[in-house]
Write a structure and sequence with these properties.
230 residues; mainly alpha
Length: 230
Amino acid sequence: MDAPERLPRPVPDLRWVRAPQQARSQETLDRILDAAEALVTEKGFEEATVADVARRAESSVGAFYARFRDKTGLLYALHDRYFEQAMATADLALDPARWAGTKIPAILRAVVRFLVEIYRERQGLIRAFVVRNQGDVEFRARQDRLSRSVAARLSALLLARADEIAHPNAARAVGFGLAMTVSTIESVVLFGELRSSELALSDDELAAELARAFLAYLGVPQHNTLSTHP
């Protein structure tokens, strides 16, 4: 008797993890950070003033300066919160148990699409971080620590399937491929590169092309995208 056909394993639904509701003593701080992030998204970090932030948070300039020495202090606080959320998101999204029985093509297509979604949703905030990186060594070190942590989780997930990778140095290929992918997402989503009519892409198209390029670089066959149970 023929063995029963194995159905594709559904790809996990990836979502950004937000911190739980804080105690009342943190409510004003949370409102200020939420207001600042909204304003940075709308008009950019440099254009958002302290008065704007206080007004949007339904707070006061005095309350702002009671918590931050200046706008740079605010940006560091925003990055602290972003760092915590990003780490929690990576822990959940890249948990090996979520991807048991799933092959590399399905993993990369889902993860790359998720990265594009995050960069689009948090576009103004992440752009402010990237710009700050250029002239602030301490800030760049913070961002590098986050990047290395996320890269390590994805690398572990993919290298557990190294038999699917044809590149002669699988570990280097995974790291370099991720760096190329993230760099391209930053250029396109944050800074509007590839605006020419020949290369203008929707976010879905961008994610699909980046996943295709990543897979080709790894030497992973792309015709079989279904996940299977071992």
